[in-house]
Design a protein that fits this description.
With 304 residues, the chain is of the alpha+beta class. It has three domains: 2-63, Roll (Structural Genomics Hypothetical 15.5 Kd Protein In mrcA-pckA Intergenic Region, Chain A); 81-162, Pseudouridine synthase (2-Layer Sandwich), CATH 3.30.2350.10; 167-272, Pseudouridine synthase (2-Layer Sandwich), CATH 3.30.2350.10. It is 20% helix and 28% strand. The chain is built from seven helices and 16 strands. The strands form three sheets. Strands 5, 6, 7, 8, 9, 13, 14, 15 and 16 form a nine-stranded mixed β-sheet that branches.
């Protein structure tokens, strides 16, 4: 794996290791420093030290060592299949299910269930993520598409990159919006002080647009239908929190009042309700819907 960045003006004058922490948030500072010290990171084609001061426009390139290969086990886990053919598999993911193996989740993931269900999955996403084109947070339920071969994976990934995939969520949020609908246009990046969180106040951020409308008004809460124009990490949760209407049950972005939601088991009240895309082979427009799951339906009634 490799990465490449052109230094933006906002990072000019910063140390290489400090800038990389913002440009490559998935890697820890210790990992990045080790890469730089081992000569795996160059600036303008030259190997430099972690303290090297950057200039706007500098070209940073890095090469990550191949991670140790992990054997993935097929597990006979429950899998709600909405659609399947030779190219794609569409599933309705329950809340609490991690999409792919990661530190702390070596098994019991959607990928383990997919390996048991199908002998054919794309490898384009990496050895630990067979078939995975996009993800949903562990505690977000709803529709997700999986690629069964590399050609389908590439075609689907291109649609996500072009923002042509229809993605609609249902979200129970704290408070009553003053208007019936709205659009949030705020770039999202890694939080300046908490690397595990995303923020609309990040120094280095990517454009993000979310459209929402009120489906139902409740007691000091509302059910929103949210449509993503872009697909940044935690986009719905971050954007709704930024306008003062955090997702109920969200312990990361919601604060105490939002976290104390009538959900059992506790989780963020967010559901990927609609997914639409062009079939990677036929080009036919496909649309899949998932009804509000029982726990969110119960919370809706309790709040209503």
């Amino acid at each position: 794996m490799s990465f490449a960045h052109r230094v933006p003006a906002a990072l000019a004058g910063q140390r290489l290791d400090a800038a990389l922490a913002k440009l490559e948030p998935a890697l820890s500072r210790a990992q990045l420093r080790k890469l730089v010290e081992s000569g795996r990171v160059t600036v303008g084609g030259a190997v430099v030290k972690p303290a090297h001061k950057l200039r706007a426009g500098d070209e940073i390139a890095g090469e990550l060592p191949e991670p140790p290969r992990r054997e993935l086990a097929a597990e006979a886990l429950a899998l709600a299949v909405l659609y399947e053919d030779e190219d794609v598999l569409v599933v309705d993911k329950p809340a609490g299910l991690v999409v792919h193996p990661a530190p702390g989740h070596a098994g019991g993931t959607l990928v383990n269930a997919l390996l048991h269900h199908s002998a054919r999955l794309s490898g384009a996403g990496g050895a630990d993520r067979p078939g995975i084109v996009h993800r949903l947070d562990k505690d977000t339920s709803g529709v997700l598409v999986v690629a069964k071969n590399d050609a389908a994976h590439a075609a689907l990934a291109a649609q996500f990159k072009l923002h042509s995939v229809l993605r609609e969520y249902l979200a129970l949020v704290r408070g009553l919006p003053r208007t019936a609908s709205g659009t949030i246009d705020a770039a999202i990046g890694r939080h300046p002080s908490d690397r595990k969180r995303m923020s609309t106040r990040a120094r280095v951020a990517r454009a993000a647009v979310t459209h929402w409308r009120v489906e139902r008004r409740l007691r000091d809460a509302a059910l929103l239908r949210v449509r993503l124009e872009t697909g940044r990490t935690h986009q719905v949760r971050v954007h709704l929190a930024s306008i003062g209407h955090p997702v109920l049950g969200d312990r990361v972005y919601g604060g105490r009042r939002a976290a104390a939601a009538p959900l059992a088991p506790a989780r963020q009240a967010l559901h990927a309700a609609v997914l639409g895309f062009r079939h990677p082979s036929s080009g036919v427009e496909l649309r899949f819907e998932s009804p509000l799951p029982a726990d969110l339906a119960a919370a809706l009634e309790a709040l209503g």
